[in-house]
Design a protein that fits this description.
Blueprint lengths: L1 E14 L2 E6 L2 E7 L6 H13 L1 E4 L5 E4 L6 E6 L21 H16 L5 E3 L6 E15 L1
Parallel strand pairs: 3-6, 6-7
Antiparallel strand pairs: 1-2, 1-3, 1-8, 4-5
Helix pairs in contact: 1-2
Amino acid sequence: MKLVIQRVSRASVTVDGEVKGKIGNGYLVLLGVGAEDTEAECERLSAKMINLRIFSDSDGKTNLSLKDVNGGLLIISQFTLYADCRKGNRPNFLMAKEPAEAKRLYEYFAELCRREIPVVETGEFGADMKVDLLNDGPFTIILE
């Protein structure tokens, strides 16, 4: 599983002109599910992500977590994080989990987050999505 976590002041996702998810302060998370991923990876990485201390405290130090700042989550499925571009110019996605199982794990990941964070929004799995964000920092973390 791969997560690209961007600290944002705001973020939203639109499908066919309709806003599907929108948050203020928090994380925009691009989530890719790999062929070998299981529920255990969802559990490990959701806990790690939620507890990352990447928000500034009153002294300007990155000491606060998503919970500490009452931040929201916008989680977007992103199988292209598993693009293999080593050969040729057209990426292959053989390392990504097949769609039905990837969707199940994506939804499980979001559910785990909802147990800890009051505002968790998602995109639409498999859809052509337009993502808008105001990156705060910018501050971007990659978890695997």
